[in-house]
From TrEMBL:
<feature type="compositionally biased region" description="Low complexity">
    <location>
        <begin position="1221"/>
        <end position="1234"/>
    </location>
</feature>
<dbReference type="InterPro" id="IPR013783">
    <property type="entry name" value="Ig-like_fold"/>
</dbReference>
<keyword id="KW-0732">Signal</keyword>
<keyword id="KW-0677">Repeat</keyword>
<dbReference type="InterPro" id="IPR013151">
    <property type="entry name" value="Immunoglobulin_dom"/>
</dbReference>
<keyword id="KW-1015">Disulfide bond</keyword>
<feature type="transmembrane region" description="Helical">
    <location>
        <begin position="425"/>
        <end position="444"/>
    </location>
</feature>
<feature type="compositionally biased region" description="Basic and acidic residues">
    <location>
        <begin position="1196"/>
        <end position="1205"/>
    </location>
</feature>
<feature type="domain" description="Ig-like">
    <location>
        <begin position="682"/>
        <end position="774"/>
    </location>
</feature>
<dbReference type="Pfam" id="PF13895">
    <property type="entry name" value="Ig_2"/>
</dbReference>
<keyword id="KW-0325">Glycoprotein</keyword>
<dbReference type="GO" id="GO:0007166">
    <property type="term" value="P:cell surface receptor signaling pathway"/>
</dbReference>
<feature type="domain" description="Ig-like">
    <location>
        <begin position="227"/>
        <end position="297"/>
    </location>
</feature>
<dbReference type="Pfam" id="PF00047">
    <property type="entry name" value="ig"/>
</dbReference>
<protein>
    <submittedName>
        <fullName>Immunoglobulin superfamily member 1</fullName>
    </submittedName>
</protein>
<dbReference type="InterPro" id="IPR036179">
    <property type="entry name" value="Ig-like_dom_sf"/>
</dbReference>
<feature type="region of interest" description="Disordered">
    <location>
        <begin position="1196"/>
        <end position="1241"/>
    </location>
</feature>
Amino acid sequence: MTLNRLGERAAMLWTFTVLLFCIRLSLGMTSIGQLPKPIFWIQAETYPLTGCNVNILCHGWLQDLVFMLFKEGYAEPVDYQIPTGTVAIFSIANMTPESEGVYICRTHIQMLPTLWSEPSNPLKLIVAGLYPKPTLTAYPGPIMAPGESLNLRCQAPIYGMTFALIRLEDLKKSFYRKRPIKNEAYFFFRALKIHDAGHYLCFYYDESYRGSLLSDILKIWVTDTFPKTWLLAQPSPVVQMGQNVSLWCRGPVDGVGLALYKKGEDKPLQLLDTTSIDDESFFLNNVTYSDAGIYSCHYLLSWKTSIRMTSHNTVELVVVDKPPKPSLSAWPSTMFKLRKAITLQHRVPHPVLEFSLEWEERATFQKFLVDGDFIISNAEGKGTETYSCSYRIEAHPNIWSDRSEPLKLMGPAGFLTWNYILNEAIRLSLIMQLVALLLVVLWIRWKCRRLRIREAWLLGTAQGVTMLFIVTALLCCGLCNGVLTEETEIIMPTPKPELWAETNFPLAPWKNLTLWCRSPSGSTKEFVLLKDGTGWIATRPASEQVRAAFPLGALTQSHTGSYHCHSWEEMAVSEPSEALELVGTDILPKPVISASPPIRGQKLQIRCKGWLAGMEFVLYKEGVQEPVQQLHAVGREAFFTIQRMEDKDEGNYSCRTHTEKRPFKWSEPSDPMELVIKEMYPKPFFKTWASPVVTPGARVTFNCSTPQQHMSFILYKDGSEIASSDRSWASPGASAAHFLIISVGTGDGGNYSCRYYDFAIWSEPSDPVELVVTEFYPKPTLLAHPGPVVLPGKNVTLRCQGAFQGMRFALLQEGTQVPLQFQSTSGNSADFLLHTVRAEDSGNYSCVYYETTMSNRGSHLSKPIMIWVTDTFPKPWLFAEPSSVVPMGQNVTLWCQGPVHGVGYILHKERETTSVQLWGSTSNDGAFPITNISGANIGRYSCCYHPDWTSPIKIQPSNTLELIVTGLLPKPSLLAQPGPIVAPGENMTFQCQGELPDSTFVLLKEGTQQPLEQQSPSGYRADFWMPAVRGDDSGVYSCVYYLDSAPFAASNHSDFLEIWVTDKPPKPSLSAWPSTMFKLGKDITLQCRGPLPGVEFVLEHDGEEAPQQFSEDGDFVINNVEGKGIGNYSCSYRLQAYPDIWSEPSDALELVGAAGPAAQECTVGNIVRSSLIVVVVVALGVVLAIEWKKWPRLRTRDSETDGRDQTIALEECNQEGEPATNTSSPSSVSQGTSVELPVPV
């Protein structure tokens, strides 16, 4: 089990510690040299058994020293070395008992043999495995409280040995030696401390330092509270009559018995002692209805200890003929809406293999799902009917449960609903009115070509009336749609502040009292304190902690009264704080009592809020002389609990506070609170659509729903009503309300809940939702214990470390909306236990902490930590930056990176017994820099994770990286066949030609960190074939080579070769010198430049069919004789080796300007045209001025002849002939002189 795996891991730890069965002793040497003493340690692949290899490392402080290895009892050194660096490695191959003993190391300068260093600290080398392993036991037991005493007994089968005790968590400080008492030794801890907890083992050895095998690991717990146990039912907590069930008890403590309890029974049902603890299972055979109930398991101790027992999780065992029926609900409601689907949610309080959804109107309609959420659409009205569901469990896959209560979905069939028809009719009528209005206007304009002022006024009035009707219809349409709006915007008030008192006289607080006011809003500017009956007292500016102090000093009769405070922001004043009442000069302030509505059969918490810290609280009930409960405060308040509310618990309650020490000083009793159990509706379903942990400015929507019809809803924050939603009679079925906070502020956090009601009956309060607004406090750190990689079925603890004490912590997992766990603590950290993790528990976790007294102001989210549930570490990746092919003397960084963070890395080099470098778990980048690279750094490298905790998880090495150093051999040449320009899909060959035989050639590409390919041909050249090249293969290539006899010591880079994979060579660039403007008598040089050498350029001029000029250097001289040089130019090029392949033309370049008479002629033409434009504009202005002066006279004449001309105007509107045709009407003849003539414009 766990102990064996810890033993295996413990053996690996010996590799990296000085105390690998090595005890530092004093040999009494007095010969002190003039050089500093070296550092001396041991490195081995495992603990030193017979036949194993051990390396003894000696580190000096200068280069080119002579290292001497001495052994106790020998005058001459047993070995010496002259290494090139500062470290000498003395290897002891094939360990034998003769290798045991005490060793030291000394150094001296090679040229001065008399100048010696001080001797190193001695190392005692013990060969293990020659004797049988001992047994290690703890008395009185392995779990003890801090301050208690403990004896660890190490017992061996051989007498007269020396015993040693090791603590794996701190090997350097925990190596204890004891002389034996017969065949055993006792290691005594007089007063245990927390840091004494850990994994212990022991061994023994004789006078010749021949040691035994290691004992089994014994874990010692030092804690004041027992770790929590977990109980699981296998195969399921729902058991069929006559079946067997196994209750598995899990906990982090090993070697301790377990007891199984059933609720309602005092004695344990079954016991598991330490001999049978490996199974950790309680069996119930042939279960009956009497076995149903709530079970829990506890640790069974055989010794006395002061450790407190914590609460344990429970498992409810259900014994049925059939599994109990599930619950079925609809979200967001049972009423379909246009183009919206409904989710049917099936819920069961235990694991389920599969859910089945049935449609009662169709026997063949059935769906199967694992999570129980069925999405129902209403296409063509097929979704509106009655549904029910059932399920089956994994233990009995052939037995289906009873069906749930039926649930009917109602709503429109497709799109033909009354609301839809009404809206479409309104839209269609508006469109028809607008079209009709437009046609009427056009008809009047066409028939009446000369409208007078009265007709224009009538037409404008008609247009205004029509537009008024349209606006009214639009408003009505908006009101109709407003009834269907479901979201109620929450107008959040300025959060009310908190008021409390502080004193420096705990036994007599009234001698010096200070009132403090604090606001959860960060924008508070100042505070004001008020007293009932006297009004305003004082104003204080807000400090950095958004609080202010109001000193009262020694209380007098003038101070008695009720106090409250406000916080002021720039544009708002907060609600008043809770009132603090001072009732006398020698009596404590009156507390405030409150509680949620009592519910029969459920737990009720009664909150008593005091005003001073460190007080004791007492709860009283009217009619009972003795106090009901007494508690010590947590902060300035206490919570009294009634475990199960019954009729006998109804009545009037009050609370008082008193000082902690005698003689007690009491407060006045609080105002009484009456508890009455009323009949209530079931509590609603309450949640947020997104995560309740939000950043400032986020949008939050609360959803409160119930299957009851026509209900009104109330939203509460911290017990106070803040918003409501009236009932809707328009839609039958379940009721729901959505409360919206458009932009969350710092003070909007808190505990939200909702209730619903009809005319007289209220519901129970919903489960609270803790809304946490982050980014107020510094972010915490999240660490995993024992590490971020854990085996399936094991436990992992996530510790969230905050910056302040007394906070509440929440653990979040990426991909889940609701926090996984909450925890309140008096310290500044919280431990979240992930019990019996599985593969689906892998993911990114983060945490946040927040204060519960001030609107749940929270911290920034911690940096996420990835938890891996696997039996093998994922493979890391090793790469070099900027490249694994590095010139001599340059710097390179080897990066070992993988998906697991919080784990160290170790870098290995091939054919070297020691690790190159080591990163601890505090570093996540895994960078191994190598500066001023030389031939000693070449070779093959690999890396792997290096966890700093005991773990049996397998570790995989990374890929192998070959580090090549260039600049040691002559450079090769690189050619491309058929050429540097290749069409996509064709084949290509790189030819790298070196100067030495028996070489390995390496092909490189600029921008890539690894070589593309390596070859070891028999001759001087390597051909690298690239089939079916693509556009990604374009780039700059080079090659190097190194001798097979000296691998990775490579030549200089070849000349760089740029390759283009394209149908056409890339287009060139075209520029003009000195500018694109011609000057009189001056020429312009066009410069065409391309990216490839060995090309021929051609220049083309728009309007000319044949190319104008050819050039090998790309320079073209252009003159402007007779203006022929003006125009657009472009150029292209072709390879001289491939004359049939032309590049794309360059971007066009325009040359402008003039030379001689042409320019003068153009200028004269422009002047003439500009003059004509000015004349036309002036003439048009004169005409407009004349017509403007005539306008008042025309209006006067129009008003004088208005009555006479109306008849003529109407007759003209009715005529269908030409406007110039004369009428034969007498009236028209007689009135002909009064007809207006058109006014020319």
